Every structure is written in structure tokens, then in C-alpha cells.
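Morning run. Coffee first, then this:
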Amino acid sequence: MSAASCQPLAVPDLAGRHPLAQVHPPATPPPHPPPPNNQPALRQTTPPNPLRSSADTRAREQALAQSRRSISLSAAGIAACAVAMYGVIQLDPFGLEKLEPTTTTNNNDNNDSKNKTMLDGPPGFPDTSASSPAMILQGPDGSTQVETGTSSVPHFPSTMRLPTRSSTLQPGDALPASGDDGASEEYQLLGLGIRTVSFLRIQVYVVGLYIATKDLPELQQRLVRTAVNPPKEVDSPAVVQPTTGAGSVAFATSLVPGEREALKKLLLDEERGDAAWSAVLREGGLRMAWRVVPTRNTDFLHLRDGWVRGLAARAQRYTISPLPDTSSLSSGGRKEGEFTDESFGRAVGEFKALFGGGGGGGKKGVSKGQTLVLVRGEDGALEGLVQAEVGKPGMRFLGRVRDERISRLVWLNYLAGKNVSSEGARRSVVDGVMGVVERPVGTI
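And here it is:
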């Protein structure tokens, strides 16, 4: 038996395939090359984020820039309008302030004076310049009135009568209507003006300075002596010599035109005016009064705060740079520490209390057109009076501050320095006192 016959026989499997047969995988077609793709492969997209979109970002930036430009242009327009309004008010291109006021005729017993303007005050007042728009009118009660320049409070009386001071009066006491009964004193108007605030010139009140008619000669003498011996330098130890008493300057009977002009410049000077007015006021003996009439409804506290702020600022300024001592017992040296002692602080407290709680009457409001009067007595004490009711006679006593420094500082707040409460009132008062010194001393 051969070797071939000895090999085992191949038995086909159950599928019928021979075990020795070679198994080949089924033939697959050759792969085809992919078609050329000139576009990016497509993928699933999501809605774009507006915050990440460059186009939307540019649009937002442009809108923001446009908004900023609009805000800038609006702000510039507002500022330009404000500046233009202020410029028109200051420059007065239409010349409204330069219009000469007309005067009305006054009837009196003398037929020759029918067309003559009545001058109840000293010569030279009222002044028809731009700084003093005063005009004499005939009042309903026969008294003369002066135009104020505002329709809210159109007129001030050229004269008024105030009750004589009584030490028995208490805050809140009613005062009868003043008349020519020996219990009142006549005061003459020296000048008036309007108190305004902010660059828009919002009117607060009309204020006028009055002086007792009997004290006009004394005011005349003090002004003449101040003109003859004006302050030389603010820092000089003897700025102004006393105007009364021992050591006063030589008596002068009148002023020549050059001296009158020099006195006017002195009283309006921002630096030396303080010393000049202080010399006139410090000695006492001049009964004067500020008449204050609000142009709108206000209250005592609002008016008081304005006066206290000016009073405190001026006292602080004089503490740093004291005014000269022009009292009759002084040689003209500087009065150091005049406003730093405790008594002055107490006097300021009394001044505040004078208008606190409705000024002693419980009524805190001050109506439009209601008259408030600050009276400086012969000894320099300050008294407050308020009209009981608008349009009706009779006044109410507010109180009294005996310290002369308080009334003097309140007066200087209107008359002297760089910043005064009413520039129109200051210039009008100076014009009024120029009419006083035009006459020879003793002829008033």
C-alpha cells in the first residue's frame, strides 16, 4: 500500500465544502476616487450669537458713538444758551437800563410849580443813571413814592415814619400805625436796589436805606470829614482818623467837585470802602433803617440765613485783616480781635433768635409785599419790625440786639466790600449821599 493510500480521506463538512478547498474573500469592486470638492464640508450650523457677530458689534459701537455725540452737542447747546442769556443781561444790547424814567407832575399850593418834580429827598436823588432807576411819583396818601424797577414791588415811599424805640417792648408786641404824634420819627430814603441770586438774577427782595431826617446833618459832616481825610493804605496803622470827638480831623464846610468824585470812588472802592463806611457807622449817633420787601413768598429763616452767612463771612475776613479803630478814644490804630470774643458769639445768637420761631409772633412765613424793617438805633443797637399784615398799617416788634457790631456788619454787607448783597442798592445809596454832601454843611 502506497503512502498516498495511507493518508486519511478528506471528509466534507456539513456545508458540503471540502476541507482542503482554499477559501477566498469575495471580490470587492475597486474604490473610486472621491469627486473634487471645491466647497467646505457641510456641517450642522447653529443660530449666530449677536454678541459675537462682528457686524452687530460695529453697529452697536456706531450707535453708542452717535448717542455720545448727541449728548455732547446738547450739553454744548445748553451751556451756549446760558452764556448767551447772561451776556444779553450784562451787555444790555437794547439799552433797557439806560431809558430815562419819566416824571409825573405834582400839584401843590403854588401854581408856578405845577410842572415841577417834587424832590422829597436831598438834591441829586433820585439819580436817573442806569444804577438808580428811581422816579418820584405821587402816592395815594399825598406822599411821594420811588420806583423800584420791579413789578413785584413797584414803589418805595421816599419817606416813612417809624415808631421811636422803647425799652419796654417785647418780641411779638404790636405797634400802632405810626403817625405824626410825637411817638414816631421820620426817615428819608437814601437809595434802594433789588437783591438777586444766581447768574439768572432771580429777584428775592427790594431793599432801601433810610436815615432819620434829623440825623442828615450828622451824616453830612461825617462824609465831608471822611472825604477830607480819606484812607491811604489798607494796611496802614492809621487808615481813617476819627470823624467825631477829640482827635477828629479839621472841620470842612463843603466839598469841591473833585473831592466829591474822590469820595464817591472811595465809598465804592472794594478795599478802602470798608474802612470808610466803618468810620461813618462805628461812632453811632446815626439812626438808620433798611426796609426789606420780598418779591415772592419766603420765610424768616431764609432771610435770616442770608444775613447770618454774610455777617459770619465778613467777621472772619475782618479777623484775618482787622479794620482800623476809628473810635473817638483811639489814635487810629487797628482793632485786633474785634470779632473773636465770646460776647460777639452771643450777639450772633441773639440775632438768630430775633428771626427764629416766626420772629416772636409765631408766624414763620413772610408774604410777598410784606414789609420788614431793620432799624439801627442811635447807640448802634439793632431792632427788627415786621408789617402785621400786607397792605394794612401797624407793625409787630421782632426783638433787639444791643451789640453795635451786629448792626454794623449787616450795614457793611450792603454798603462795602467786593461782594455786597445788592450792588444796585450800594450804588444807589452812594448816589444819594453824594446829594447830601453837595450842600454846605449845616444847610440841610
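DSSP finds ten helices and 13 strands in the chain. Good start to the day.
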